[in-house]
């Protein structure tokens, strides 16, 4: 058996998220496993770097798979792309050392969030950005981002009761705005359930003045969900890269 | 009766073109007329600046309509947008002088064409660009564009037998390329059926070396369709602006 890493891009619009489910065939993991089974000729387990919610997109999700015998990466990738719908694409296939695992070997991730602040939502970005037609004070957003950067207990920044540690490190948050569009990029060693979407809601609330810098300190200190901002919608979110 | 101009943006992907047809309800003109009838309370004829083919998009198509009585432009626009699907949006509604007609009053148009030259087609641009993974010599494309600019008989640059004059003026053609993407912008006083798509195919053939500059002069001189380049697909094309 040899271990391969696949880098995958997908438009999450019409799927019910990453994770395979009993109740539906319409998940990205499920569709990938079927296409890989057809290509390889036997069932193959697909391990993703992590789940993405329904509607979330990926520019660089990664998965690990084990295949028996020798496989040409290029041919395998091409043959797989022919079997996949056009909104799921394999960007790269690479032979890895045995023991590589898309999730457990990952050292960090990068996410991108797109916000459309124009008065009317653009027709072409409607699936790929959150329409939020408000004035955003970018100085306040950047101050809030500075407070959130670093190693903290992010217990207030998840929508799930976590049993394990909610301590994570955010390496940096980059905010760039121009022409009615704001993009936020997050790099960190790991993110909790809904964490990037709640961080985004918190930064937007800082930008409109709904949350003060004190509120953000207080969210980090108390770990209480209601102290942080809202959960921004899935469709503006992209998993950009997984680091190893 | 008062005359209004509406500026409309649409994603042409799931429609059978602009023009109303007996055989289908799925045209942009047809859907606009139904929504306007619901908003106004009586049937209203929608006159577009011109047709767009199935799959072609618009960032600024214009239409003229006549409404009886006084209408608040903002309210009319908002109420209309509530009735329209999210891939058709009214960007502006303006009261015009009587006699204004979206098509006959137009002095020119601007079209944009998007080409994705990356080896693998990007997932997010797949509806909005033509995937053409070839090396394009931009110097040759720009030379060809210079030859095509100006007033010429564009008889070789249409897929329809035209009964009227095929003489048109192209004001300018701008070619910009970066990061695996090429955009071509065309401004002119009017364009024949498929003309922008054939101009694009011709510029791409000049970029790959399939057509020489002599071939392009010869297409203009002979008016023979087979001398010009191929008809580039609809999905890369955007009607950007109509000039008055």
| Structural category of chain A | alpha+beta
Oligomer: homodimer
Please give the number of β-strands of chain A.
10
Low-confidence region ranges of chain A = none
Which whole number gives the mean pLDDT of chain A?
95
How many helices of chain A does DSSP assign?
5
Instruction: Write the CATH fold name of the largest domain in chain A.
Output: Alpha-Beta Plaits
CATH hierarchy, class of the largest domain in chain A: Alpha Beta
Biggest sheet overview of chain A: 10 strands, mixed
* Count of structural domains of chain A: 2
Secondary-structure blueprint of this entry?
Two copies of one chain form a homodimer.
Chain A lengths: L1 E9 L17 H13 L6 E2 L8 E11 L5 H11 L4 E9 L11 E9 L13 E2 L6 H11 L1 E4 L13 E12 L2 E8 L6 H14 L4 H10 L14 E7 L1
Parallel strand pairs in A: 3-10, 5-6
Antiparallel strand pairs in A: 1-3, 1-4, 2-3, 5-9, 5-10, 7-8, 8-9
Protein name (chains A, B): tRNA pseudouridine synthase A
GO molecular function (chains A, B): RNA binding; tRNA pseudouridine(38-40) synthase activity
EC number (chains A, B): 5.4.99.12
């Amino acid at each position: 058996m040899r271990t391969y890493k696949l880098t995958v891009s997908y438009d999450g619009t019409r799927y019910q998220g990453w994770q395979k489910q009993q109740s539906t065939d319409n998940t990205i993991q499920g569709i990938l496993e079927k296409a890989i089974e057809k290509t390889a000729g036997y069932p193959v387990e697909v391990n993703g770097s992590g789940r993405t919610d329904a509607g979330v997109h990926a520019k660089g999700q990664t998965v690990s798979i084990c295949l028996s015998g020798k496989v040409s990466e290029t041919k395998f990738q091409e043959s797989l792309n022919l079997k996949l719908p056009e909104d799921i694409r394999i960007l790269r296939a690479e032979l890895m050392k045995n023991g590589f695992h898309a999730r457990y070997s990952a050292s960090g991730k990068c996410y991108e969030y797109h916000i459309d602040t124009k008065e009317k939502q653009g027709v072409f970005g409607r699936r790929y950005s959150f329409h939020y037609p408000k004035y955003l004070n970018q100085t306040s957003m950047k101050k809030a981002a500075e407070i959130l950067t670093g190693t903290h207990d992010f217990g207030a920044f998840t929508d799930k009761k976590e049993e394990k540690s909610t301590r994570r490190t955010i390496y940096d948050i980059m905010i760039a705005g121009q022409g009615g569009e704001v993009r936020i990029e997050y790099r960190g060693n790991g993110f909790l359930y809904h964490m990037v979407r709640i961080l985004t809601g918190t930064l937007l609330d800082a930008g409109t003045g709904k949350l003060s810098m004190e509120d953000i300190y207080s969210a980090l200190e108390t770990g209480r969900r209601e102290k942080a901002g809202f959960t921004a919608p899935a469709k503006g979110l992209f998993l950009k890269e997984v680091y190893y």
